[in-house]
Specification:
The chain has about 240 residues and is mostly helical. It has 9 helices and 2 strands; from the N terminus they run αααααβαβααα. The longest helix is centred in the N-terminal third of the chain and has 26 residues.
Amino acid sequence: MGVWGRGLMQSDDDYDIASDLSEMCECQLVFMGEEEVEEREEEYSVKRLNDGVLSQKLDKILSADFQPRTSHHKRERVAIILAMLAMELGIKIEDRHMVALQVLRPWLPTIEQQLQLLTALDEYKNNGTPWKSGSKNLAQTMHARECGKGEYDLGDEFWFSGLGHSTDEGPTSDMFDTVTRLANDTTGESTRKFVKFVLTLAFVLSLTWTICTNCRSVTGVLLQPINQYLNRVGGYDLNNQL
């Protein structure tokens, strides 16, 4: 399986899932924006998904007896990929499915993917306005490696505008700014807590690594204030990990 980035839709596996989902929904879900004919196909897909197909397929995927077409694909990831592709088309997603996606977040294997999902769930307008993912596809990644930074580009070969943005708004120019904004955004409470937890945990792990592992009592004293903070923010007890 080819993997060229840390985000969603940055692996052959995710594109295989998208292909299976296109067959399941009987409409195209991935558009590269390279051919005029895609505009007509996109209009058809938007109408079909908004006419109830998206809700029906999410219900089916989230049911306990759902079996992905490819055995190694996880049901949880299939649901997340379908929802993210639907957001990129501006499809209306029911509230109950948005809640389900929040619950599925821990199934994503990388911090980048989890932050991408949470950002989309917090900021997607759900009114027909498409969502722009920050992930580059393989061709865009290879182009960035050869040609360097482009418009709305972080300068990183894998990312455009960080964690994603609504297409009717300008993208954030820097991923760090995006994470900082989310951490201080009181309207996105779940994202704010999660980002603060991730950043704090990274600091804790770095600090713990530098302290002598034989001096557990010293480590406990030094990390006590941080442990209290983690408990308040994310219900995380560092003592259970030491």
